[in-house]
Automatic annotation (TrEMBL):
Organism domain of life: Eukaryota
UniProt cofactor(s): Fe cation
Name of the protein this chain belongs to: Phytanoyl-CoA dioxygenase family protein
SUPFAM superfamilies: Clavaminate synthase-like
Transmembrane portions of the chain: none
Organism field: Amphimedon queenslandica (Sponge)
Pfam families per the UniProt record, alphabetical: PhyH
Length: 279
């Protein structure tokens, strides 16, 4: 079982949750964000032209594009409160087995009928190039909109994190996992389509193979992804993502309490600075 629920605005990492993450490489948490938290996040992102000014297009090699904005530090706005909250950062600390810090956050935007695909890859396939020496890293994918097969939800190979890091090269104009190796793993591992309701979240290990298809629906698919690194895995060399920076966690109640719209301190990243996307 990989699906669990957040209740009373809290999420407990039980032994079953931990075992599922370690064995399958991911867990799904239903309603990680409450309806009120989700509405507040949506309103902030949709009305915050300053944040969207930092977004840029990512071509998928097949004539489609997705847009994304990426920043280094959580900041003081609602997106930062979510990234620093106990039910998000605290959960990832337990799943990864130690103190974590904020590696980056990104807003991924696949618009209706135009949103592009992302090829099979592992996050550590990129982060390895950033001199993070160990795969003690993970990502929280929070659905801002309903994500299903029609609008290009994530697909994962369950348990593929146990295969270790796979070589990444140019694939369809992107940097992706060696497709021959991926096809081999498909013969042994189940492919799971991760369909999520808005507010649901996927916590996944940095070596889990995942991809997403183009959005051919009439519905957009926005998602909010927060990446964490173990404090003990401080990258050797400076790069476009932070080296160890202590993360000040906050109570979950601070998400709804947040009235700050100040984006200073986030340090937005331009794609030309992203060394992990270069072949």
């Amino acid at each position: 079982m990989n699906m669990f629920s957040c209740s009373d605005n809290k999420f407990e990492v039980t032994s079953q949750v931990q075992e599922s993450f370690e064995e399958q490489g991911y867990v799904i948490v239903k309603s990680l964000l409450s309806e009120a938290e989700l509405r507040k996040l949506q309103a902030s992102l949709e009305s915050d032209s300053e944040l969207l000014k930092h977004s840029y297009a990512r071509a998928d090699g097949s004539g489609r594009v997705s847009r994304m904005a990426l920043w280094k530090h959580p900041g003081k706005d609602i997106s930062g409160m979510i990234a620093r909250s106990e039910k998000v950062a605290g959960t990832m600390e337990k799943l990864l087995g130690g103190e974590v810090y904020h590696y980056h956050t990104k807003l991924m935007m696949k618009e209706a009928r135009t949103g592009g695909q992302f090829v099979w890859h592992q996050d550590y396939g990129y982060w390895y190039s950033n001199t993070c020496l160990f795969p003690d890293m993970g990502t929280v994918f929070i659905a801002i909109d309903k994500a299903d097969v029609g609008n290009g939800c994530l697909k994962v190979l369950k348990g593929s994190h146990k295969a270790g890091r796979i070589d990444h090269t140019k694939v369809a104009g992107q940097i992706g996992a060696d497709l021959e190796r991926v096809e081999m793993l498909k013969t042994r591992l189940p492919l799971v389509e991760v369909e999520l309701e808005a507010g649901d979240a996927l916590f996944f290990h940095c070596n889990l193979l995942h991809k997403s298809d183009q959005n051919n629906s009439d519905r957009r698919r926005w998602a909010f992804l927060i990446a964490y690194n173990r404090a003990s895995n401080d990258p050797i060399l400076p790069h476009h993502c932070p080296q160890y920076t202590p993360l000040l966690k906050v109570d979950n109640s601070e998400i709804l309490n947040c009235e700050c719209n100040d984006l200073s301190g986030k340090e937005f990243v331009h794609p030309s600075d992203d060394i992990s996307l270069k072949d």
